[in-house]
Design brief:
- The chain is α+β, with helices and mostly antiparallel strands and about 80 residues long.
- The chain has 2 helices and 6 strands, in the order ββαββαββ.
- A hairpin with a 5-residue loop joins strand 5 and strand 6 (about 75-80).
């Protein structure tokens, strides 16, 4: 698996940086439909497009090590803020 996993979710682009993720699981707690921790304790996508946009953004912003990055449709980074 690569260092990054990136998905288009509606008009957002969400990236997990696997080198930064240490498995706190705040993203899983915040949006369990979007993320799970894999066998290595690293966040991976499940169904992020089925999660409410605000819930997804809050879950990404909750990451204490900024392993999740989100850009809007214009390419502006909105998480981490």
């Amino acid at each position: 698996m690569s260092e990054f996993d990136e998905r288009a979710v509606g008009n957002l682009r969400v990236r997990i940086d696997r080198t930064l993720c240490v498995g706190f699981g705040d993203c899983v707690t915040g949006a369990p439909g979007a993320f799970v921790l894999d066998g290595e304790g690293i966040a991976v996508f499940v169904n992020p497009d089925q999660v409410d946009r605000d819930q997804l953004l809050q879950a990404c912003d909750a990451c204490p090590v900024d392993a999740l990055t989100v850009w809007d449709a214009e390419g502006q980074q909105i998480v981490p803020s």
